[in-house]
Amino acid sequence: MSYTAIVTREGDTWIGDVQELAGAHTFARNLPALRRNLQEVVGLVLDAPDDETFEISLRFEGVPDDFAAAVALGERRHELEEQQKELADSTAKAAARLAAQGWSVRDIATALHITPGRVSQVVSPHAA
Predict the structure, then answer these.
(1) pLDDT tens, position by position, 85-110
(2) Global pTM value
(3) Which of 58, 75, 83, 112 has a CA that sits 20 to 30 A from residue 102's CA?
(4) How far, in Å, CA of 38 to CA of 53, rounded?
(5) Counting beta carbons within 10 angstroms of the beta carbon of residue 35, is it exposed (0 to 12), middle (13 to 18) or buried (19 or more)?
(6) In 3D, which of 77, 78, 97 has the Cα closest to residue 89?
(7) What strands, in cross-sheet order, belong to the sheet with 13-18?
(8) Tens-place pLDDT, residues 55-90
(9) Distance between alpha carbon 120 and the CA centroid of its chain, in Å?
(10) Secondary-structure breakdown of the chain: helix, strand, coil percentages, each rounded to the nearest 5
(11) Rg (Cα) of the chain, in Å, rounded?
(12) How far apart are CA 78 and CA 12, in angstroms?
């Protein structure tokens, strides 16, 4: 399940309040620590195993516009990185399928808009 934490700033402290769970709130001096604390408090409220992780998106309220813009940019970068990983995986699978069907490396490269060298890398039996 995914959760949303409303994040505010008071002085030099970040405060996070998980909307979907009554009593799930915490604070920290920096955002990485706040993310860790939010994971912990959600786990405590749900009485979940210690190693369980939760998808918690942060919604910032009352922060300066420049910081809010940086957060939006960071979220966009993260989404694009995830899309890039999915695209690379799909490309490797498509290249492997085409190679197994006997298509040439150059034809596969042209079809997928990658270099022949990259095709050779992703269809190699030693490709990671």
Answers:
(1) 999 999 999 999 999 999 999 999 99
(2) 0.68
(3) 83
(4) 10
(5) middle
(6) 97
(7) 25-28, 13-18, 2-10, 55-60
(8) 999 999 999 999 989 988 998 999 999 999 999 999
(9) 29
(10) 55, 20, 25
(11) 22
(12) 26
